[in-house]
UniProtKB/TrEMBL annotation:
Naturally occurring in which organism (per UniProt): Terrimonas rubra
Signal peptide range: 1-24
Protein name, as recorded: tRNA_anti-like
Classification via InterPro entries: Protein_unknown_function_OB
The entry's keywords: Signal
Pfam families: tRNA_anti-like
Domain of life of the native organism: Bacteria
Length: 146
């Protein structure tokens, strides 16, 4: 019984931690994306390659991709909202059995129409600011790239 309570406590902490991260202002992050892109060219990468980079070496991947503008191409796995109503799209990462498998792209409310037009299985390209690893690889301030 103690192990179950401990597990539930950890799960609750993870959920609240994820919510706190997800609740950051995505509109403000979109401005950071534009500023960062003006300072340094965006990095084009596939969702599978980004996932693999974090699986192979999280520290090295953070040095290369965190706080960088990323243009990520991948297949839509889901289109959802978290419990704070933040819009996100999950791109399928590396299809191997990694504990880190997917790319979670957070969009501002300005992109509701773009997100609502997506379909599972659709191949898309998303631009956003790399925000490291929290269960999934996180991108913030995302927009679809035509």
């Amino acid at each position: 019984m103690k192990k179950t309570n401990h597990f539930l406590s950890i799960l609750v902490v993870i959920v609240f931690f994820t919510a706190a991260i997800a609740s950051s202002d995505e509109k403000a992050t979109e401005k950071k994306v534009a500023k960062a892109e003006a300072e340094k060219p965006a990095i084009a990468i596939t969702a599978a390659a980004l996932s693999k980079a974090y699986h192979d070496n999280e520290v090295g991947a953070d040095q290369q991709y965190k706080d960088a503008v990323l243009i990520v191409t991948g297949t839509v796995q889901s289109i959802s909202k978290d419990f704070t109503d933040k819009i996100y799209v999950i791109l399928e990462g590396d299809d191997r059995d990694f504990s880190i498998a997917d790319i979670q792209c957070y969009f501002s409310d300005d992109h509701v129409n773009a997100a609502s037009s997506l379909k599972k299985g659709q191949r898309v390209t998303v631009k956003g600011l790399g925000d490291g690893l929290v269960m999934n690889v996180i991108l913030r301030g995302c927009s679809l790239v035509p």
